[in-house]
Amino acid sequence: MSKYYLSVGAAEDFIANTLSAVGVPKSDAVIVANLMIQSDLAGADGHGIFRLPAYIKRIRAGGINLHPNIRYEREQGAITLIHGDNALGHLVMAKAVETAIIKSKQFGVCWVGSHFGNHSGAASVYVRKIAEAGLIGIYMAVGNANH
Question: Which of 21, 111, 120, 121 has the fewest CB atoms within 10 Å, i.e. is most exposed?
Answer without folding.
Answer: 21
